[in-house]
Automatic annotation (TrEMBL):
Positions bound to ATP: 14, 208-212, 283-285, 331-335
Domain of life: Bacteria
Ligand binding (Mg(2+)): 7, 384
Protein name as catalogued: Acetate kinase
GO biological process: acetate metabolic process; acetyl-CoA biosynthetic process
Active-site residue numbers: 148 (proton donor/acceptor)
Annotated site, Transition state stabilizer, chain positions: 180, 241
Coiled-coil annotated residue ranges, if any: none
Pfam families attached to this UniProt entry: Acetate_kinase
Subunit-level organization: Homodimer.
Length: 397
């Protein structure tokens, strides 16, 4: 079966067409600036030249039609007709407490997703727009929703509750939800295979480190703790997000700087993190370049980020009681040997030792710890699209 994976943003649409017979990517692409001047579709089919299509796209329905036309194009397409698409898997950011696993999209599911909009006002609306457009264009094709939050719904109450009046959890659903769940689940399954064990036999710490970053404690294949919270703002310091801070800072800054709710929210989400700390960039590569030149703020920024990661790994070791493996994934986790080495330096007392040559490698699934390291350390490139496709296949079959 060939499965189309869709990930809709407010003005973007990412997609992959995957042949589930061998899990090969037949085509992939990105539509940008939907509803904005300068709309563009970048499409690439296996073993063919990349195609750039620049045409106005007033909404996601128009964008999706262009994607489907690109997929069946005789010159640069990947399939002969749309009838080859057996199912569509949609990435949905927030499923609230209603969805602990992926599910087939039916009317009652759509309604439940609409009810979750207030929990993810920036993400769920475009996800729903993409679902609506797909259902209209491909009405006979089964569709599945895969939720970023679902994997973390196995957290116990003591892990997801906040120290505020319990009534606010009951009334508004204020609790830790966690995100990047599809990625954490994928790499934990891959790690188990790499270790030659079943997921239910292992306690793992998965580190999704990119512009958005989170860590999860995975016990027996299930998430029992994670660093992101009610929103993706919580936890680690990220590209532009502040991560965990003293909540009293918010009203303090609002008073001192005369900030509105919208302004302080923007400050924490868009102006903070390593961008705000370094004053250089939200891209770790730029900060590392400046740090190498002797920029003290850049150096401190990197050390602050690495410390937060070490602190979280240490805390999750206490949660799990036993750690059978640590996994690095996502942009920074997969590609930065320096950051991996600096983070693991703090765990020499645990008997963790990195293989310097292995750690220099990038872009492939591998152990980067030595054979005698007390805890294996791995790099596993994440593949959320493949995880979505696997869930979709399992459900539609």
């Amino acid at each position: 079966m060939k499965i189309l994976v869709i990930n809709c943003g407010s003005s973007s649409l990412k997609y992959q067409l995957i042949d589930m017979e061998n899990e090969h990517v037949l085509a992939k692409g990105l539509v940008e600036r939907i509803g904005i001047e300068g709309s563009i579709l970048k499409h690439e089919s296996a073993n063919k030249e990349k195609e750039i299509i620049k045409v106005p796209m007033e909404d996601h329905k128009v964008a999706l039609k262009l994607v489907l036309e690109a997929l069946v194009n005789e010159e640069y397409g990947a399939i002969a007709s749309m009838e080859e698409i057996g199912a569509v898997g949609h990435r949905v950011v927030h499923g609230g407490e209603k969805f602990a696993e992926s599910c087939v999209l039916m009317e009652e599911v759509i309604k439940a997703l609409e009810d979750c909009i207030e929990l993810a006002p920036l993400h769920n609306p475009p996800n729903l727009i993409g679902i609506s457009a797909c259902r209209e264009i491909l009405p006979e094709v089964p569709m599945v929703a895969v939720f970023d939050t679902a994997f973390h719904q196995t957290m116990p109450k003591e892990a997801f509750l906040y120290g505020i009046p319990y009534e606010y959890y009951e009334k508004y659903g204020i609790r830790k939800y966690g995100f990047h769940g599809t990625s954490h689940r994928f790499v934990s399954i891959q790690a188990a295979a790499l270790l030659g064990k079943k997921p239910e036999e292992l306690n793992l710490i998965t580190c999704h480190l990119g512009n958005g970053a989170s860590i999860a404690a995975v016990k027996g294949g299930k998430s029992v703790e994670t660093s992101m919270g009610f929103t993706p703002l919580a936890g680690l310091i990220m590209g532009t997000r502040c991560g965990d801070i003293d909540p009293a800072i918010v009203p303090f800054l609002m008073q001192k700087e005369n900030l509105s709710i919208e302004e302080v929210n923007n400050l924490m989400n868009k102006q903070s993190g390593v961008l705000g700390l370094s004053g250089v960039s939200s891209d770790f590569r730029d900060i590392e370049e400046e740090a190498a030149k002797g920029n003290e703020r850049a150096q401190v920024t990197l050390e602050t980020f690495r410390l937060r990661v070490r602190e979280t790994i240490g805390a999750y070791a206490a949660v799990l009681g036993r750690v059978d493996g640590i996994i690095f994934t996502a942009g920074l986790g997969e590609n930065s040997a320096k950051d991996r080495a600096a983070i693991c330096e703090g765990f020499k007392a645990w008997g963790i030792a990195l293989d310097e040559e292995a750690n220099k490698q990038r872009g492939k699934e591998m152990f980067i710890s030595t054979k005698d390291s007390k805890i294996p350390v791995m790099v596993i490139p994440t593949n959320e699209e493949l995880m979505i496709a696997r869930d979709t296949l399992a459900l539609v079959k």
